[in-house]
Amino acid sequence: MDNTEEILDLLRENARLSVDDIAAMTRKTPDEVRSAIKQLEDNGVIMKYAAIVNPEKDGEAKDKVRAEIEIQVTPEREHGFDAVADRIWRFPQVKSLYLMSGGYDLKVIIEGDTLKEVAFFVARKLSTLEGVRSTKTHFILKTYKENDIVYVEADKDHRQGVTA
After folding, report:
1. Which residues lie closer than 8 Å to 34 by C-beta, 6 or more apart?
2. Cα distance between residue 78 and residue 83, in whole Å
3. Which of 27-31, 142-146, 157-161 has the lowest mean pLDDT?
4. CA-wise closest residue to 74 among 65, 83, 66
5. CB-based burial of residue 116 (10 Å sphere; 0-12 exposed, 13-18 middle, 19+ buried)?
């Protein structure tokens, strides 16, 4: 594992680690760590640092409606799927967009305030885009695990002990 991969693995696990902590863990100098992190940021490997928030415990996120949409598209000459994808990812409702293999071409994860808002977005914005042949919407009811983060807590025994 090279210098930057080791540092990247540590930051993937905990982006709040200090340069000094990373230096101690990798047996590098703080200047070497700072330089490696700057290189990762400048090269676009590290794009953003963000907090992972449990949507079930965040009042605002808890009330959001999320949907996964399967989209079949007609690829454009010389641009393939990229031109359609470029139009789709620009909508603020779109949280994730993937090119897929199998029975559909693109998978979109969107978020809205209500079922009606999500349905309106699919019917009026997404399905009417040039190149979109069909859509199939699946509403996300509960998230158990996402990006290696488990959101459900283990059942705890809340019974009190009995003494004799």
Report:
1. 19
2. 9
3. 157-161
4. 83
5. exposed
CB neighbour class for 121 (10 Å; exposed up to 12, middle 13-18, buried from 19): buried
Region of 80 on the Ramachandran plot (φ > 0 left; ψ -120 to 50 alpha; else beta): left
pLDDT at 128: 95
Nearest to 109 by CA among 89, 123, 127, 80: 89
CB 76 within 8 A of CB 83: yes
**Furthest-apart CA pair in the chain: how many Å?**
80
Could you tell me the two tokens for 137? 């919407």
Amino acid in position 88: I
The pLDDT of residue 142: 87
The SS3 call for residue 68 is: strand
